[in-house]
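User: Predict the full complex structure for these chains.
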Amino acid sequence: MRVEIDNAVFGYARRPVVRVNNLALAPGRGLGVFGPNGSGKTTLLRGIMGLLEPMEGMVQRDGEVLPAYLPQHREMELHWPMSGFDAASLWASAKEQFGRLGHGVRAAVREKMSLLDVADLENRSFPRLSGGQQQRLLLAGLLATRPNLIVLDEPTDGLDTRSTRTLLSHLRDVRDKGRASIVLVSHDIDDLVELCHEVALLHPAESPDEPATVEIVPIEQLPSHILRAGAPT
Amino acid sequence: MSNWQTYRELIDVNAPALIAAAGLAIGASLLGVFVVLRREGLLALALPQVVAVGAAVGLRMDWNFLPPAIAAAVIALLVTAWSRARRTSHLLLPALYIGGLSVSVLLIANSAAHLHEVQHLLAGEDVFVSWQQAYLAAPTLIAAGVTAAVLWRRWLLLAQSPTAARVAGLRPARWDALFLVLLAAAVVVGTSVSGILMVLACLFLPAATVLPWAKRVPGALITSVVASLIFLAGGFIMSIEMDWPLSQSVGGVGFAALIVSHVAAAIFA
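Assistant: Here is the predicted structure of the two-chain assembly.
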């Protein structure tokens, strides 16, 4: 297992936000994260990625885990002037000393840009591209570092149907051929069905002092009211 | 119109101040690109006013300018970091600006000679610069700006996704601290040789002039430096021809260029 979480509580200061029992991420598997706003999805992601230590319980990561996080293109600061390549190489630059990109890293980013069919956007102004093009550029840069645990926070939010299908298809390839584990937060059940084997359903607690609980459900056993209605807000 | 001989004589007389100002124009215009993009404008406005408080303490106590100015800048940065952690910096920074502006004058309100010195520090008029100061200030200012420029991909990543940076093993708070230290160093050293007005003019005007046209950060950095040096040269010429103070002339030239740039960008870009 890449990541195993057992009886863990994640939160901030002394406030527990989310309790997780028996969550396991294996190579080549996809885990969806689904729940209403404010239920602790981001906190759960931070726990999975190792940005938050559990307040109680246990988290185990295998020594080989290479996590990567794809930010929402909508949350990016688009007043920064940057080309398609600058945006694609953001993640790779994080791994390099002082952010400087060597020839090998540049070549790896360009290779993935070609693979995701965005090589022609290298010199285009990133803020002026469509949401789908922006998201594919970011994904290309992320894949260039060969991560084996990819965390995506609503990657299809704001994308049209065609862009969404293209992005999910690339992610499925990475999951199946690259044996990467994928964690996908989405309000769109179709995205989860496309990419995930299990879904972590977050159930908010009735008292604000209590943490939300996480129920791990195989994708084919999702409750019908969720399949019909999507995420409550 | 002054002749070339007049310019040569004035350049000779003002050489240390001009060299220090050129160092400030280069260093501050590089940092200024990130100040504008990172939306650190309030901090950049408040910091020189706090430095002026340190300078006023130094004048009052007959100390050297730099140690109390550096101490004031360090305290301001620590308080800023604390308030950012508590998400109250939007309340603190305007207060630091007006507090610094007031307290720096109040500290020496009953000392006419020192009052003039602080007013000169604020306005950047008649600031005397020795060769020794110029040789120290210019490389320091350029080094601060070049360091920030070399790290441009780091600032870009931290602005776009601090979470991704953390997942990659970076510590955004430490990088933010480095940026604030570089900015504070430029503000303290720049204020000591050219005055607050010149520091602010070089921080904001070149970056704000070129950014509407910028396609990438490196291009913005290079054009910001070029614009800053042109504003300095233009301001120097205007100050001689019109008998205006240098800092205000640089600010005036820069502001006029900024207006032209933004109007042109609205039409053509």
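Chain A has a mean pLDDT of 89.
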